[in-house]
């Protein structure tokens, strides 16, 4: 996720890039590779902290949030989907109750459960580098792909697939209604239909919720994962925030 800090074209550009902390070094090396003599400084920001502000039962009312308080560097709607609420960036140690009065600090697992329930991928487990394709990962639904900007690596294939409208697999939220194995569901586990056909693969999750890359043709079928000595049932759903024709 990218955040622009400068307010006008006349100001010197300042961009914050939110990334998976496990790939911080590799992303810096990748960006520096494409600087090509530009006067661009790329540095991590260890003095900043990132918060997800998850809405309550009535999401989407951005007017209910205060303007950026003194302690907040940025407070903005999450650009991926309305159901994800807001992104808050503040100095480490900032008093969150002053920035957002009445808010409660939750556990990071609460955040992951919320986004898995909504089918929002994030980080290298959900989006493995070199494996995850942008359209199959629903990035076109989350302001993650431009079809007017050119060119970028993979632009031709991505644009052609988009305009043809043939996307057979997508990341979908999945749930496990029954008891789970003590070791959980392994990442990359193959998902099968009841008839034994390959339907996709489990990417990642937490508890009874997760995200999986599935063939849309099997979306409404009973699905399962066959583990050594165990068979786990799961259900896939289409997120309500998707465009209506997306799962067709």
TrEMBL record:
SUPFAM superfamilies: Folate-binding domain. It comes from the Eukaryota. Keywords: Mitochondrion, Transferase, Transit peptide. Residues 168-244 form the CAF17 C-terminal domain. It holds the Pfam family Beta-barrel_CAF17_C. The keyword Cell cycle does not apply. It is found in: Mitochondrion. The keyword Cytoplasm does not apply. GO terms for cellular component: mitochondrial matrix. InterPro entries: CAF17_C, TrmE/GcvT-like, YgfZ/GCV_T_CS, YgfZ/GcvT. Signal peptide: none annotated. This is CAF17 transferase.
């Amino acid at each position: 996720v990218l955040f622009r800090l400068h307010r006008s074209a006349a100001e010197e550009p300042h961009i914050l890039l939110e990334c998976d902390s496990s790939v911080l070094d590799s992303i810096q090396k990748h960006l520096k590779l494409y600087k090509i003599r530009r006067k661009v400084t790329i540095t991590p920001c260890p003095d900043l902290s990132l918060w997800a502000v998850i809405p309550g039962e009535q999401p989407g009312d951005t007017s209910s949030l205060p303007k950026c308080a003194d302690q907040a560097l940025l407070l903005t709607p999450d650009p991926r989907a309305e159901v994800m609420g807001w992104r808050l960036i503040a100095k480490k140690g900032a008093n969150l109750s002053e920035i957002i009065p009445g808010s409660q600090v939750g556990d990071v697992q609460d955040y992951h459960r919320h986004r898995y329930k909504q089918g929002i991928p994030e980080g290298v487990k959900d989006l493995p580098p070199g494996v995850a394709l942008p359209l199959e990962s629903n990035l076109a639904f989350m302001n993650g792909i431009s079809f007017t900007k050119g060119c970028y690596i993979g632009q031709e294939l991505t644009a052609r697939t988009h305009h043809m409208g043939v996307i057979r697999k997508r990341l979908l939220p999945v749930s496990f209604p029954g008891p789970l194995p003590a070791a959980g569901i392994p990442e990359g586990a193959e998902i099968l239909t009841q008839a034994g056909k390959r339907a996709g693969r489990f990417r990642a999750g937490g508890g009874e919720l997760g995200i999986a890359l599935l063939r849309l043709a099997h979306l409404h079928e009973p699905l399962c994962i066959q583990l050594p000595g165990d068979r786990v049932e799961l259900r896939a759903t289409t997120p309500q925030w998707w465009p209506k024709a997306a799962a067709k």
